Amino acid sequence: MNELLLAELRAKTIDLAQSLCLIEQQILTSDEQSAKATMGDINRFIDYFAAQLADVDDPLDRAEALLRLIFVEQLFTSQAQDNWSSKEHLLHVGLAYRSLAPATKNLLLLHIIRACGFHVEAVYVPDQVMLRIICDEQYAIIFHSLDGKPISWQELDQRLDRDDNSVEQSSLEPIADSELVVQYLLSLKNALIRESRYSEALQVVELVLALQPNDPYHRRDRGFLLQQLDCYKVAFDDYQYYLQNCPQEADAKLLKLHLDGFTATDTTVH
Fold it and tell me: What pTM value is reported for the model?
């Protein structure tokens, strides 16, 4: 595991754009030169946005002007879709074609908007993660990173009223950057699995487990990927760990039946 990447992701304050570039280099074979070019493009956007906002003093006007610059002038808007490709998790693809998976776009926008001097954070709004710019003690704008459209207070109240999740989530508490990075990694993992890129997906899960050691659900996912790569012994151990820790989950019974026919000694070393 890349120690520089792990140190970046474990830092108290994470450089989100730099972390994405490092993940791309580690897992998706992006080179250092491409990462530098991507960071240069991001910094040029930041400089341009900051210059355009230089004469806008009112906090709410500044926030609204920035959203117009990002989503209208620069066309950073996307259509919702069920599945996003691995390419749409890449920063340079997103910057070129304005199409980024939501988990990636959340991190990129947080980086850009903070660099422009705003207090912005991710929050859970049933049933999705949205971004919130806090303008001052009176005003805040909550918007979806796909299209930049603010959610009305009426719609927000309706969503919260029908929310079945925990009090912490429904009270719009900020989501930690470290958790957003994990959400991005899981989104990337799912895209790679859909594309049958199991070796790269395994690297993603290994990175997630380095950040959240022994999480049984990530261990289950690693077991699945190891099985696809014919590493049966380690896959068996991961599946057993999941069953021991999550015996009541809906898939546990089916997985146990699967393991009954599993040959634990059939091992391939990678």
Answer: 0.91
